[in-house]
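Inputs:
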Amino acid sequence: MEVGLVVVILFASFICTRSEFIVYNTSQGIVPSKLNVHLVPHSHDDVGWLKTVDQYYVGANNSIRGACVQNVLDSVIQALLADKSRKFVYVEQAFFQRWWRQQSETVHRAVKQLVSLGQLEFINGGMCMHDEATPHYIDMIDQTTLGHQFIKQEFGQTPRIGWQIDSFGHSAVQAYLLGAELGFDSLFFARIDYQDRAKRKDEKTLEVVWQGSKSLGSSSQIFTGIFPRHYDPPDGFTFELNEESLLVQDNILLFDYNVQERVNDFVAAALSQANVTRTNHIMWTMGTDFRYQYANTWFRQMDKLIHYVNKDGRVNALYSTPSIYTDAKYETNESWPVKSNDFFPYANQENAYWTGYFTSRPAFKGYVRMMSSYYLAARQLEFFKGRNSSGPHTDTLADALSIVQHHDAISGTQRQHVADDYAKRLAMGYLEAEELVASSLACLAESKANTGCGNIATKFQQCPLLNISYCPPSEVALSHGKSLVIIVYNPLGWKRDDVIRIPVISELVTVRDSRGRAIESQLLPLSNSSVGIRNYHVRAYLGKFPSDAPKYWLAFSASAPPLGFNTYVVSIGDRAGASSTRSTVYTSEVGENGTIEVGRGNLKLNYSLEKGKLTQYVNSRSLVNSFIEQSYSFYAGNDGSDRDSQASGAYIFLPNGSFPIKSEAQAPLTVLRGPVLDEVHQHINPWIYQITRVYNEKEHAEIEFTVGPIPVDDGIGKEVVTQITTAMKTNRTFYTDSNGRDFVKRIRDYRSDWDLQVNQPVAGNYYPINLGIYLEDNKMELSVLVDRSVGGSSSVDGQIELMLHRRLLHDDHRGVGEVLDEKICFHDECTGLTIKGNFFIRIDPIGEGAKWRRKVGQEIYSPFLVAFAEQDGDNWTSSHIPTFSGMDISYSLPDNVAMITLQELEDGKVLLRLAHLYEIGEDEDLSTKASVELKKLFPNKEISRVTEMSLSANQERAEMEKKRLRWKTEASKEETKVVRGGPVDPVKLTVELGPMEIRTFIINFSSIFFPHEVDS
Amino acid sequence: MEVGLVVVILFASFICTRSEFIVYNTSQGIVPSKLNVHLVPHSHDDVGWLKTVDQYYVGANNSIRGACVQNVLDSVIQALLADKSRKFVYVEQAFFQRWWRQQSETVHRAVKQLVSLGQLEFINGGMCMHDEATPHYIDMIDQTTLGHQFIKQEFGQTPRIGWQIDSFGHSAVQAYLLGAELGFDSLFFARIDYQDRAKRKDEKTLEVVWQGSKSLGSSSQIFTGIFPRHYDPPDGFTFELNEESLLVQDNILLFDYNVQERVNDFVAAALSQANVTRTNHIMWTMGTDFRYQYANTWFRQMDKLIHYVNKDGRVNALYSTPSIYTDAKYETNESWPVKSNDFFPYANQENAYWTGYFTSRPAFKGYVRMMSSYYLAARQLEFFKGRNSSGPHTDTLADALSIVQHHDAISGTQRQHVADDYAKRLAMGYLEAEELVASSLACLAESKANTGCGNIATKFQQCPLLNISYCPPSEVALSHGKSLVIIVYNPLGWKRDDVIRIPVISELVTVRDSRGRAIESQLLPLSNSSVGIRNYHVRAYLGKFPSDAPKYWLAFSASAPPLGFNTYVVSIGDRAGASSTRSTVYTSEVGENGTIEVGRGNLKLNYSLEKGKLTQYVNSRSLVNSFIEQSYSFYAGNDGSDRDSQASGAYIFLPNGSFPIKSEAQAPLTVLRGPVLDEVHQHINPWIYQITRVYNEKEHAEIEFTVGPIPVDDGIGKEVVTQITTAMKTNRTFYTDSNGRDFVKRIRDYRSDWDLQVNQPVAGNYYPINLGIYLEDNKMELSVLVDRSVGGSSSVDGQIELMLHRRLLHDDHRGVGEVLDEKICFHDECTGLTIKGNFFIRIDPIGEGAKWRRKVGQEIYSPFLVAFAEQDGDNWTSSHIPTFSGMDISYSLPDNVAMITLQELEDGKVLLRLAHLYEIGEDEDLSTKASVELKKLFPNKEISRVTEMSLSANQERAEMEKKRLRWKTEASKEETKVVRGGPVDPVKLTVELGPMEIRTFIINFSSIFFPHEVDS
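Outputs:
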């Protein structure tokens, strides 16, 4: 192969010497006096869907779908180089990075040139085009940051445009946080409710200024363009290889010359779009899924269209980008309508509400959330230890997590083999991060962070499969002299107490704290259900028979400092008094009457023995005393055999009747009681098992559900929901979070933007829930928090409904082409997948719920990170420090602030993100300006410089604010004053945060960090 | 659009700086010690098939099939420029020229460089990959010449390789004439009989030296490679965009790395092919139909395969071309088996004999033959007049004719809309050529060829629709003083007499020769059948009602000098004696007994009145007296409902029973007699009408058949044949021509190359017929000549069968995807197509048939070209010359030589081809060396230089002979000495020709031509 450059060839340039060689004039810019048709060449490349991300990249598995992103990028670059008028926008950095790493320096130079000339522009710029319903906002920030960092580093560019063209509904957080706060000047997408779109086309309000945040108000507005139809070109202007669109045939020596016909088609399509659009600028999205595999096919036609349409002169056609389009819109000085809230739920037709995917693949959604939290903690520990260039790193996990935020990943709308691929990537990322975490904890425990962690001796083990009661390091048979060391790491910025539960074999154990004092602990016998799940899944997933099942959960309350750890030691209980307490067990009898009260602390739950169910919620401190019920039911998934052929499926929730699941008489209550917590076990039916936990020191109920395998022998797909029912008068109103951040008010059967025609009273009132959902009346707030993304609603006043699991038997014809019927297989025998998860219930007096939701929400997102080691004798304390905090020992973050990113960058600087947790007006005390002392966050380090950045840290905040376009709006009503933190004083280094504000900093240090021992 | 060059980018070159950027070593040459796998990148681009040639080129009509040749060429050139190791062969010049004309000078320069470096090589190099069964050899030469001229002119190259990979069987003429005589060093193709292939694989005789000509023997051998399977790559190595082949995934950072697996697959496929191939060289045809639409997809994979396979080292992989492969084979010094005859018929499985296409679309085949002849004559006239740079030209017709030689064009295996496109191209070409012919005749008649033809007054009209009895210029009502001038041009090199028939209105007309002498003429009433066909087709095709039908055919014997014309004048017969004779008409009665004799000259045909059919053939001169019958029958086309699902269709002839068509009793004989000819009209059945003509001065019978619309109301497709039956003992043996040139011996149910398993006794004995078919026994020869390509056989000793028309109701699954059910429509009412054609029968004493077949064969191919003008008074003779010859008046070509090309080239030189018409041993007198005096061919012109060229005139013959590879063969038997003409003496300028020799010359002149008047 030749090494060198070859002079290539403009296929449509240079001096015309033959009658059939035509020079196309494509250099046309905007013509203010005409209708400008902005042709925006783009390819929408799903980061996994029908094929895995790598299969899409290399073009493998084409029997499923012909798609190869490598071709897109190869051929687009060639096409752009051939004509400097041509433009292209690229979005998904997961693909771009794969391609970039394979290219030569020569290609790198050429592409950098294309980028600097504006021919190739990166928009959106995250690793993927994330989903907007099911990801957590921290994951959205992280995956965007990962992409933006790369673009900044390789090209010195900061994307200006949000491009969420395909996500199935649009969140408030996307608009203001992953939009305005990134410095984006506009946001574009295709999918909104069909009724909404019809009205917007009618009123020319497809383009608006979207103000997604109550708290940040006009300071985080973003110009938003909704496409008139979809993100593909107008009919007949799709020019992929082998496409059926009529090509412009302009060679007079060949048959079927059709230039005038095609120009007329173009003008007609342009005028039709102009008819629903304000100003004299319209955008044509010239591309769609995985197109531009041979980019020349598109550019050749667009060259001709631009040339002949402009010769015709009725409209003006130009190569453009969303940036150019945005600037052109801005230049018109038009006033735009203001849109608030969000664009959920999304229905593309009467019977097609895309609200099933809020829950689809709940195990995967849970896994992603667990990894998200782990990644946050692992980065902290990576920083404390010091980033090691040779690894292990969190980078693999970061990459995997970024990919699974894709709108066909965490959404659950991919094919099974692709879901498996995502899980594999997470698992690989986890394994590396686990190694990092273990070594960091060991390094910190051995106090070697300042001397280098190369020769640490301690090997920490962790238990990612605790949810199936599988934890080999805790299941060891402890003998006298050998004990189990448990490191409990707290990724939150506050000191924190929480109950740890680990499976143990012995029934005579003692738990000691880091000073050697025995502390209270409780043994809870493992239910048969848990043992069965454990043994089956260990065999199915690990391919081995687990050792004999542990008999007990050992529970004890642990405490850890902010960003720090504490150490507990479990040993054989040799003195009776110090041993853990075995739970008392009470099993109700069938037909028994009366009630039973559960809980030893402030919270008591009353159960009816006759009905075998929860009846009353009582908090003796807050004096809440409320009727409450909790029940299960399922929706029969529509099978698509009716007129419209629409089935309930991976995307769509289309119920065909609701069926209550009655607690069966043979399954009475079992109550376990002890000093740490009480548990109520309910075998609801053969495939639903539930444990309700009331911790003595907590004022909420934790419900662990085990749902599955959902039976489908009756040929009916089922979508299993639970209802928490009170007598509250909630007036059709409920609140759900936006990506775990802001709460958005929802009113049943109502949309603020248009007069809703209610066709699907259930599915059309479902919303995505990442943090929680709550109701309020004039006395109380009922809050439910979740451990992963689910769909939820309030279909009846006073009631909250969560969809926990779905198993369906029909594809819903939205492209995935596979039935959402998750299975687990062992030796080729498959059964439906079982889901185990938690949700958390609390009732507060009105006005007091936010504190719990925000604080416990953080705890649910960031549980203790627990690691295990074995101690032989008492040598641990001699060689290890028992407690550690990454912050100043005297310091803790304010109650209304969380540290959502602490990460050492490759250059040794630190990326820090602080998030105010409260919205304006959300809490009387905490919806106020907060301040954080940076110096306290980094004890023993000298901060030399603090630079406030945009949310994705790819540009200085001040620079970003300077460039931001400020759009004229039609809004006239007075706006509440926006509270934001002021500039950071370079001496005091105190960071202020207004409600809901997230501030992002790059911090430079001038001295070395010493880890700090903390008293506990 | 930028005007200028851009530096582009080797996607797989330059210095490696990142771990994932791989430099592939693709520069590998041949390694003599290893098995060499020659990867030959190619695209097989049908010049029309499912889509028209222009649709394929621009990529239109992709709903039928995604295919765009423009993409192939664009992307291949880019891919070749990116790596100088890469190679590509291109074949079809019709496409390449379309592309070339659209490119800039810059592209031209780059492509010329690629060609000169051998990266891009033209093989075959004709305008299309012609069919080998149904085209006439003159058309094959012309279409190849057209492509080769272009390649020579633009690139200075002469193709070395025959590449008939897709044609459905292979002709002897292809091998020796369109192979060796072009200077080709090898010929490759895929399609041969499945039994033949099996044996050849077994015996390693897929590669042979083919000696296609008895007469030219070893002087025209060609190395021939038959592919082991088809012309696509081995399974799993097809790499088109979106293809399902496993791609080489060599990025260790992505999943599914598979380099070793793919290398193993490669080696296994190579060894498997080596197992059926002699020497250590095998060829992989890396491409197939319309592939390389984005060439990068192929080259990227081949780069990797070459790189990793050679690293592996078991076999040697290289980018190659058939030329490199041929040279490598030659270098091995291996001896090859010798193959003679041809590769017809082709069957790809037991029940799939591709012998239907020999007849498919007989009207189109007839039209092509008519245009071929017209083109030959028009070029002569273009030369006589002098080529005019501003046209009209024959070039459009040349281009159309070249395209219709394609193996899915004249073969009749294209879709109907494509057949229509071909016909339209021919019609457009004809219209321009007709104008040229008219002006040339006018120019010559006005004696202005030496002074310039710019201001000619005479407007000649022509009658291309004479076959439907439609000729407006002859149908005029002649009044006293007005007469019809008829110019009769003879394109043959001999003086010639033939009967002219034109429709006239008047029944009192006189025909006068150029000296004003009344000559004998005859009026034959138009049959009702003819009138019906005329009126229907004129309306259907011309969209107008024809004027009142003429009542008569006027027939008279015309005579014209070699390459010259004569003039006849038809006027109202004012003197009884000079008027044309009305034919006597006799219609036999049903039930009549006895015989009737037809014919006034040497030939008499006897008909049985009782049976209404021919019974005896008598020639009073040669004393032949033979029983003869002629009948019709049809084969029921298999409908594919049986086990193998094989139907008879456009390609395949698969009869399901044979059914005689009995002459119906209500349709007795009608006999027309007169001084010029006798006609026997037979209404065989409602859809077969036949006229047998016996000319007084000819010794053969001409049968004009009118077949159609074939009824298919019974759900049965029908293939209509006629049988000519004698009592001859022909011992299973018959002879059919090869593309109108050599006759090849056929033996029923026998193949010379293998032990034939007879599965299809009818279809498997069908052969293509372009010139004729004959039988012989020890006394007689029965010869039948045809006016177009048809399929024929001798299924029974003494009998000749011709398939005249086919109408089928099922697709035969060979790709066209359309039923061969030709229709003609008028006002949306469609009926099956009617075919009108002629064949010619003669019986000679043994040894005397060749003279007739060759001479009359030439006359059938080149009928008189007739043009009409109107004369007012007697002014014609005063302003026009009545006769003309392009040759010296004293000269005529020898009886065994034809001038098959006389064409003025753009540079003023003349291209001349002379063809010896006889094979060695074919005729006692004429299979001898012939000589032609060039000076006599060009009277009044000074020949300054005569250069003998290769057949396609793209290189000097001497040069070609010097370069020719001479292969070692296994043949040992003595060969007959080959007779070829010697070098042309530059002074005498006499050209000698041995049997079957065709010699091609470029002639330079140094003086101006004066047309010459001839006495007649």
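Remarks. Chain B touches chain A through 76 residues (CB under 8 Å). The mean pLDDT of chain B is 93.
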